[in-house]
Design goal:
mainly beta, 17 strands
Length: 239
């Protein structure tokens, strides 16, 4: 018998009475850890496009945001806490042509990319649910409905409701993960999209961690400069 895929509708009552978790207090990166020992993520006050090179940031000291190091390339960053069903609000900014991603449970990526101005977008563009990868081939990616990207150097946001995969008492997966709704800068780009397994560069691929009921939020740090702020996750108990 195959995995059953049924639409999930989330009501206000089902998401009520959950306590939001601030994953970044603006002061330090306690509550986060690098995927490898080479971890150069750091807190900053502001990032702006480098006037000499729009593909880089000029980083100003202070608090309120965090950035993937002075070189704009370091390891992926994982939340210390692990989560299942959730609603996530996260804000990000990239310079020209840069690339990052938000991995729910460290497994299922919403892509971040400088996609500003593109008329035709695919799963690899900003707001896309990234493809899976096997035997040298990508498959099952989901492009955003529309391109809602802002210009490089401008802050953007994702708001997503995510339903974790389900497992039986034997630990066998009986339902796939699902993005119930994803908005990019306030524009709906996905509704009720099933993800049959971990997307490319997930924890499953990088350190053989399998799918599970809960997992950390992972932010990609090795594909180019990126900064984040205002990360709030609300755990849910979806049907």
């Amino acid at each position: 018998m195959g995995i059953m895929a049924a639409p999930v509708i989330v009501s206000a009552a089902e998401s009520a009475n959950q306590k939001p978790v601030k994953l970044f207090d603006g002061k330090d990166l306690s509550g986060w850890k690098g995927l490898t020992e080479k971890n150069e993520w750091r807190v900053a006050g502001k990032v702006i496009l480098d006037p000499k090179d729009a593909k880089k940031f000029t980083i100003e000291p202070g608090r309120g945001i965090f950035v993937n190091g002075d070189q704009g390339k370091t390891c992926n960053l994982l939340s210390a806490g692990e989560y299942g069903d959730c609603q996530l609000h996260i804000e990000f900014v990239v310079p020209k042509d840069s690339n990052s991603g938000v991995y729910f449970q460290g497994q299922y990526e919403i892509q971040i990319l400088d996609s500003y101005g593109k008329e035709k977008v695919d799963y690899g563009d900003c707001g896309g649910i990234y493809a899976r990868f096997k035997d040298g081939k990508t498959y099952e990616g989901h492009p955003p409905r529309v391109n809602a990207s802002k210009k490089p150097g401008e802050w953007q946001s994702f708001d997503a409701t995510f339903r974790a995969p389900r497992f039986n008492e034997k630990g066998e997966k009986i339902q796939n993960a699902r993005f119930i709704k994803v908005t990019h800068n306030g524009v709906v780009v996905h509704e009720n999209v099933e993800v049959t397994g971990p997307t490319r560069a997930s924890l499953n691929e990088s350190n053989q961690r399998p799918e599970s009921a809960k997992g950390p939020l992972m932010l990609q740090g090795d594909h180019g400069p990126v900064a984040y702020r205002n990360i709030q996750l609300t755990p849910l108990n979806l049907p």
